[in-house]
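Tokens for chain A. Residues wanted.
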């Protein structure tokens, strides 16, 4: 999909969704349906590289995470892997980390995994919430992250504005998500992503919809240059993109103006 077409994209559009509310509901149902096998599938389908992506993204915010009193919000947290990666970077600093997702099934798994790393000073809490209507006051967080969930929002610009709203001035955001590598690697990757991955995902999870939706959602997501423009329009004075694994994934970083 070229950049002109992507400029018209408002947000995620699962098959059959006719408006923003229907799109959000469809995404919620999809992720709830695959929650029991979600972690296994992430590791299998990414050849375990997803663990490195979370680690690299969390490490990028070490300066914030090691500062006592920091408040962190991880959006679309799923089963909590990004939140746990952030907690591991805090060391002995007393930091509050909130993981938010609108899938209750995902949050139950995250909470069950939460005992790992017990004894760290960082405080971890799970919140069932819609990213587009967060139950937090303005300027409440020092860092807001999202790993492989932002592209599933029904309205990307509204999501960015809500992130900016809950960040304090000078606060940072980190959005880790899939990309589309170019060249020969990109061609091989697209064959795997569009043909092989959905079949494996469906076989292991027993659910076909989510893994047919995944490659379409990545193709629909704004290209890096457009995403950076949207971040600046939402109120981020600084915005950058760092590709991971030749652009298969990447981290968008923004600083609130």
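Reply:
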């Amino acid at each position: 999909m070229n950049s002109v077409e992507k400029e018209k994209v408002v947000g995620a559009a699962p098959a059959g969704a006719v408006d923003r509310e229907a799109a959000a509901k469809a995404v919620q149902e999809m992720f709830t349906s695959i929650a029991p096998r979600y972690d296994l599938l992430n590791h299998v389908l990414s050849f375990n590289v997803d663990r490195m992506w979370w680690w690299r993204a969390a490490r990028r915010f070490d300066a914030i995470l090691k500062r006592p009193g920091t408040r962190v919000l991880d959006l679309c947290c799923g089963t909590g892997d990004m939140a746990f990666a952030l907690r591991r970077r805090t060391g002995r600093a007393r930091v509050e980390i909130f993981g938010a997702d609108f899938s209750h099934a995902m949050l139950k798994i995250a909470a069950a995994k939460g005992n790992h790393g017990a004894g760290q000073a960082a405080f971890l809490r799970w919140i069932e919430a819609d990213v587009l209507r967060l139950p937090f006051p303005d300027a409440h967080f020092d860092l807001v992250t999202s790993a492989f969930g932002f592209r599933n929002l029904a309205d990307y610009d509204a999501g960015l504005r809500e992130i900016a709203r809950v960040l304090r001035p000078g606060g940072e955001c980190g959005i880790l998500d899939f990309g589309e590598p170019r060249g020969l690697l990109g061609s091989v990757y697209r064959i795997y992503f569009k043909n092989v991955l959905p079949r494996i995902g469906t076989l292991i999870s027993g659910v076909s919809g989510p893994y047919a939706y995944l490659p379409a959602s990545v193709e629909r997501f704004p290209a890096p240059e457009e995403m950076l423009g949207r971040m600046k329009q939402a109120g981020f004075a600084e915005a950058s993109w760092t590709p991971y694994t030749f652009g298969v994934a990447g981290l968008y970083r923004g600083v609130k103006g």
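The first helix runs from residue 3 to 6. Residues 1-6 have pLDDT under 50 and may be disordered.
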